Amino acid sequence: MNSKAQVKFGGTAISYTVVRSRRRRKTVEITLDPTEGVLVAVPSDTPAEQIEDIVRRRAGWILRRASDRLLEARRKDFVSGESLPYLGRQVRLFVESSSGGRVRVRFDHWSFHITVPRSLTGEARRTAMERSMTAWYRARALDRLQSRVERWAAIIGQERPRVLTRNQRQRWGSCSPDGTLRFNWRIVMAEPALIDYVVLHELLHLRIRNHSKEYWTEMARIMPDFRLRRTRLKEVGASLSM
After folding, report:
1. 3-state class of 195 per DSSP?
2. How far apart (Å, rounded) are the C-alpha atoms in residues 19 and 39?
3. What are the beta bridge partners of residue 184?
4. Do the beta carbons of residue 204 and residue 215 sit within 8 Å?
5. Are 104 and 97 in contact (CB under 8 A)?
6. Cβ distance 205 to 158 under 8 Å?
7. Which residues have C-beta within 8 Å of that of residue 141, sequence separation ≥ 6?
8. Model's pTM, two decimal places?
9. What angle (nearest 5°) sits at the alpha carbon of residue 55, between those of residues 49 and 70?
10. 229 Cβ partners below 8 Å, 6+ apart?
11. Is the CB of residue 50 less than 8 Å from the CB of residue 58?
């Protein structure tokens, strides 16, 4: 008998259908059906809590491959009490109205303080706050990424490249033929260890342009726990958003 359930991952709710089968012995299979949505095929006696845990652990994979139609997206309203990720932590928002002419963002004692003109209302108010928060993140991302690139370049004996931030959804970083490194600004939402993984990943591509055995051997030599960091980034990546 099929049943419906849902898990929340970051700002997104993932609805899924559990398909129980007596023929299935041990394995659990998650598929994305264009008509049925997220399907989780399990042995008939699998506890609901175990299924939920499996879906949550595979949430990053689901979000990377599912269309928006399969998911129930939850945008931030940018009101007091909500939180946004920064450096691996959830930071609480405090929103105040003012007579000023523009939105201001202040980060103080691990809290975001957003001051919004009283003249802004409705969707215009929300859009203005999102844009201001994005600008704040991008500025912090560029500062941190430049600093981490400089540090890791020195460690591996690589000349420091040009660093840019971009609004790219599908990739955390890229290395262009001219040696410029481009990073998704959202990576600054992740914990520092994951930022370092992405930085080193792209820096090494200045030497080795592919993902050959040589590349991963060098990655392991410099950052022995890179696999753990890579797995962690896959787990939390989809939740690093507004």
Report:
1. helix
2. 7
3. 166
4. yes
5. no
6. no
7. 165, 183, 185, 186, 187, 188
8. 0.72
9. 125
10. 193, 194, 196, 197, 223
11. no
Domain range summary for the chain, segments of one domain joined by +: 3-73, 83-133, 141-239
CATH superfamily, domain at 141-239: Metalloproteases ("zincins"), catalytic domain (3.30.2010.10)
pLDDT at res. 73: 40
Q: How confident is the model at residue 27 (pLDDT cuts 50, 70, 90)?
A: confident
Model confidence band, residue 104 (pLDDT cutoffs 50, 70, 90): very high
CA angle 76, 3, 53 (to 5 degrees): 60
**In this structure, what are the phi and psi dihedrals at residue 67, rounded to the nearest 5 degrees?**
-80, 160
Residue-wise pLDDT tens digits, 146-176: 999 999 999 999 999 999 999 876 689 999 9
- Please, what sign has the CA dihedral across residues 149, 87, 77, 32? positive
pLDDT at residue number 71: 56
Quote the tokens at residue 197.
């993984």
